């Protein structure tokens, strides 16, 4: 069931604005990756000199962009769902199933955010770096963890909205 973007509660507006800002940042990351890839491919084609570490930056940037897009996708009900078996259910039944799915998603998002903290700390402690550019890997976690935590907030909020819809 798609979420209404017309939620006028204070929390809904804050989550909408924050999620939009994250999605715009994700778009900027992907735009930068696209321009870098064009420069690298052009350099390889014209001068046999690609940009060193371009694939490393694409890997890190793509992961970051995904986490930046997920909250707005959840807030607007734009994540992929399979409703083949639930189309015959009442709106209330669908809302309860959406609430259950939202609860599971909230738990997974919170688990991701929590465990990413420890993964980032491990990368910091061991000083792991990318192969070509030698960039420390821990810094990417500093960017991804807040997006994962925001996703957990958004999924908890949308789950509550599904419960409220099921109770009406």
Number of helices: 4
CA(first)-CA(last) distance: 15 Å
By oligomeric state, this entry counts as: single chain
Overall mean confidence score, pLDDT: 92
The largest sheet, given as strand count, sense and whether it forms a barrel, is: none
- Please state roughly what percent of the residues sit in beta strands, choosing from under 5%, 5-15%, 15-25%, 25-35%, 35-45% or over 45%: under 5%
H-E order:
HHHH
Any idea how many domains? 1
Rounded Rg: 19 Å
Structural class: mainly alpha
Outline: elongated
Overall helicity: over 70%
Total strand segments: 0
Which stretches are low in confidence, meaning pLDDT under 50 for 5 or more residues running? 1-6
Q: What are the salient characteristics of this protein?
A:
single chain; disordered N terminus; 168 residues; elongated; mainly alpha
Please sum up the structure shown.
The chain contains 4 helices and no strands. With 168 residues, the protein is mostly helical. It is elongated, with a radius of gyration of 19 Å.
What does this structure look like?
With 168 residues, the protein is mostly helical. The chain has one domain. It is 75% helix and 0% strand. The longest helix is centred in the first third of the chain and has 38 residues. It starts with 9 loop residues before the first helix and ends with a helix.
